[in-house]
Design brief:
It is built from five helices and five strands, in the order H-E-H-H-E-E-E-H-E-H. The protein is α+β, with helices and mostly antiparallel strands.
């Protein structure tokens, strides 16, 4: 029997896989832990728009027994002025199992996806107040590249919608 290192001893086994409709409620709950309220229907709509595996990946972390404890999303960022690269759009691990290696496992899976489609770099934007996340990314080989401000403009004629509404796009294959 091989002795486990302390890091191995506290790292729960998890399966990283693509999400299923039954996972959407857990994904919405996890998004709320990041401060983003969304519904199961919104998760469904968004995932339906992200089906092209050469442009997007979304993965969940599932513990034995089926509990979803994290997810990561990434996409290909393209611009005129820089080379294309993968960018992490979101990463969250349930607060009850943080610092157990699940985030690292999800991060490595997204990095592997990026490599598999030919990317030679991956980036992530992290809110300036998320010091713990900054340490996580630094500890996983990410370097602070720049600090910037983000500006948004609501394009929706309806008031109360924070970043516009694309709900007119429907996909009956969601559920």
């Amino acid at each position: 029997m091989n002795p486990q290192s302390p890091a191995d001893a506290q790292q729960p086994d998890c399966l990283v896989r693509t999400p299923r409709p039954v996972d959407y409620a857990c994904m919405a709950d996890l998004a709320e832990q990041l401060g983003y309220e969304c519904t199961v229907e919104e998760i469904c709509e968004r995932l339906c728009e992200m089906q092209d595996g050469n442009r997007y990946t979304v993965l969940v972390a599932e513990l034995p027994g089926g509990r979803i404890v994290g997810w990561i999303g990434a996409y290909i960022f393209r611009s005129v002025e820089t080379r294309s690269c993968a960018e992490i759009s979101g990463l969250v691990v349930d607060r009850s199992v943080r610092s157990c290696g699940i985030g690292r496992t999800l991060l490595h899976a997204a990095e592997e996806w990026a490599r598999s489609i030919g990317c030679d770099a991956i980036s992530v934007k992290s809110n300036i107040i998320r010091d713990r996340a900054h340490c996580f990314y630094t500890n996983n080989g990410y370097a602070h590249a720049k600090t910037q401000k983000e500006f948004r403009k609501n394009l929706s004629p309806k008031s109360g919608l924070p970043y516009g509404n694309c709900s007119d796009v429907k996909n009956d294959d969601c559920i």
